[in-house]
Task: inverse folding
């Protein structure tokens, strides 16, 4: 057990170190950091002084260690595009992305699980076929097109809902929330649906196949033989046993939702981290890119680590195929 | 030696064709209307893309034939439509039907090249990993584990973003397609590698592989000539489904503005351009390229689904 945990922690640390190395290389080798910071009109002496101050004359590993140290404290320098500390910029955008992702994840679960249960129990009914066909179409529709279609229908043609932005927000300390205002909630609807649709189909298909699998097992047959009602068999015996993999996958998918938020945020001009990242790529704003890279990797590595350790704690049998849970298709 | 290899390979191939014709697959195909429809749509779209320069009513990239007076014309069946432009025109007076045909060319080109790249990389690494095992295997599979825990599109986006930052700004347009193929390809190799590795590990213990080793065939020859053919079925299924994913990924990156440049638009770029005109009511600039994209991906997905059921690698492996 301890060996496994140590191995798993080490692996996570290695991944983070590699990501930090990529981010650091971007910093150091893309353009000349001194020119970037000072502009062209400074004397050689000033350039040399700044190089000394920034530690750019130090050997590579020393610079890297410093970078990693600063990164851990959340210090990624100054955004080239916005001329503000990266930390402030990211913290400002963080609530928007997290609120959107949370709503999308809940929506995906709230709709995906019942649909999966239904299609699993009544696999031959016409409604199940409709659900499955729709889910195939849902997988074939790229996220950005779903967003555009929703905007076209509900914002342009019907004019019911806003098509961009977050609406009014309320500040709670440094956190800004759109949950508390009417326009904030209205602005949330379309982006949340867009973001959740892919995960919804995924969860539906997963629950369905798990249900089909569980319903074939002996203990379900035994429960039926005992004369339990369908309701008890389906929900108390079958559904419960499908939930462990579903919850793990849903947990893992939380990271994907944050990643897919890049697309949704771009379509809806949602002022979150994903939009920030795309704008930074367009403007070659390396410090922000590096910060986003590290932050998102950290989220992913943490989620994976927690899920893996939970798996280990809950069910030792699953140790062998724990890797399967990492798939994303 | 080479003569012997060719001698064994030929009847094997002929046998494969005969088996394919006589097998359930053709029968299965002819009995599945969905598969036939999907195949027809896929073929039509491939043909439309391949022959775009000959089919398209206009050359949207020949600036001399463009007339700004023709800009933003609606499709024929809408009031104000022009017979010359069946699906209307965009803001530069380009014929939407023609840009969609040329756009699907770029989309398919990038999609197919990325799939081939990912397939070659993944199959190669999977063979090495499964055949040699040991530290190499552990190392490669660790990387695969880590990569699988990130969504493919995020990895493609990151590689793309990093490559764009490293490359000089004026080289962006010229290198965009290669950068895209590289990033989408690298983001998709893992599934091929895992599948091939699994099959290789099973096959390498079998007698024919032992026999090949005993007569002193080169490991590369054993892997490519003897083991690989046994792993190709699942690989083809993955490749078909991956093609749909690759097309979506390319479209998404282009939509986000980090894919192919507007001078050589793919379907994703066209949707991005059209998106700016959505609010002023010029829906056709977005809807037609978007619709073409969905049709393409849906057809390929359905074909892949059918192929997976028809080949059913799981059943075949256990039999």
Result:
């Amino acid at each position: 057990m301890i060996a496994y945990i140590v191995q798993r922690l080490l692996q996570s640390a290695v991944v983070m170190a590699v990501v930090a190395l990529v981010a650091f290389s971007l910093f150091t080798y893309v353009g000349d950091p001194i020119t970037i910071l000072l502009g062209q009109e400074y004397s050689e002496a000033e350039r040399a002084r700044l190089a000394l101050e920034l530690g750019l004359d130090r050997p590579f590993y020393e610079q890297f260690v410093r970078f990693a140290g600063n990164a851990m404290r959340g210090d990624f320098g100054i955004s080239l595009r916005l001329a503000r500390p990266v930390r402030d910029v990211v913290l400002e955008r963080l609530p928007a992305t997290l609120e959107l992702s949370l709503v999308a994840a809940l929506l995906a679960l709230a709709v995906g699980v019942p649909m999966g249960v239904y299609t699993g129990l009544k696999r031959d009914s016409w409604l199940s076929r409709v659900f499955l066909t729709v889910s195939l179409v849902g997988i074939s529709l790229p996220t950005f097109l779903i967003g555009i279609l929703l905007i076209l229908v509900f914002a342009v043609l019907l004019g019911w809902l806003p098509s961009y932005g977050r609406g009014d927000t309320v500040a709670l300390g440094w956190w800004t929330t759109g949950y508390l205002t009417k326009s904030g909630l209205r602005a949330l609807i379309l982006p949340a649906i867009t973001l959740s649709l892919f995960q919804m189909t995924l969860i539906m298909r997963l629950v369905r196949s798990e249900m089909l699998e569980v319903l074939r097992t002996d203990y379900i047959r035994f429960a039926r033989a005992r004369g339990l009602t369908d309701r008890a068999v389906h929900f108390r015996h079958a559904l419960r046993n499908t939930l462990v993999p579903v919850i793990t996958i849903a947990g893992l998918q939380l990271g994907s939702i944050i990643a897919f938020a890049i697309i949704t945020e771009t379509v809806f001009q949602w002022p979150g981290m994903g939009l920030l990242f795309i704008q930074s790529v367009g403007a070659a704003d390396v410090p922000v890119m590096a910060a986003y890279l590290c932050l998102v990797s950290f989220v992913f590595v943490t989620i994976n680590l927690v899920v893996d350790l939970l798996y280990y704690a809950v069910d030792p049998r699953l140790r062998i195929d724990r890797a399967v849970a990492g798939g994303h298709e | 030696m080479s003569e012997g290899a060719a001698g064994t390979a030929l009847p094997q191939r002929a046998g494969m064709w005969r088996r394919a014709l006589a097998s359930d697959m053709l029968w299965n195909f002819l009995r599945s209307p969905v598969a036939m429809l999907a195949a027809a749509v896929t073929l039509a779209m491939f043909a439309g893309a391949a022959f775009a320069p000959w089919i398209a009513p206009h050359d949207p990239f020949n600036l001399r034939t463009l007339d700004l007076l023709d800009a933003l014309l609606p499709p024929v069946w809408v009031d104000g439509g022009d017979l010359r432009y069946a699906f209307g025109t965009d803001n530069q007076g380009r014929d939407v039907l023609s840009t969609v045909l040329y756009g699907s060319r770029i989309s398919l080109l990038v999609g197919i090249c990325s799939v081939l790249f990912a397939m070659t990389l993944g199959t190669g690494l999977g063979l090495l990993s499964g055949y040699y095992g040991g530290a190499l295997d552990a190392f490669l599979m660790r990387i695969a584990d880590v990569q699988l825990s990130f969504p493919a599109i995020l990895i493609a986006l990151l590689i793309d973003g990093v490559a764009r930052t490293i490359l000089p700004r004026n080289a962006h347009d010229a290198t965009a397609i290669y950068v895209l193929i590289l990033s989408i390809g690298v983001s998709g190799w893992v599934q091929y590698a895992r599948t091939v590795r699994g099959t290789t590990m099973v096959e390498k213990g079998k007698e024919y592989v032992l026999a090949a080793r005993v007569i002193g065939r080169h490991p590369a020859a054993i892997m490519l000539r003897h083991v690989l053919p046994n792993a190709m079925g699942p690989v083809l299924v993955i490749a078909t489904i991956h093609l749909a994913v690759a097309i979506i990924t390319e479209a998404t990156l282009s939509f986000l503005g980090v894919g192919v440049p507007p001078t050589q638009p793919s379907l994703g770029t066209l949707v991005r351009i059209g998106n700016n005109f959505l609010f002023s009511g010029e829906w056709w600039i977005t809807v037609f390229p978007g619709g073409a994209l969905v049709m393409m991906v849906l057809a390929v997905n359905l074909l892949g689904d059918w192929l997976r059921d028809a080949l059913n690698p799981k059943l075949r492996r256990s039999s």
User: Anything to note?
Assistant: Chain B has one domain: 34-315. The domain at 34-315 of chain B is CATH 1.10.3720.10 (MetI-like fold).
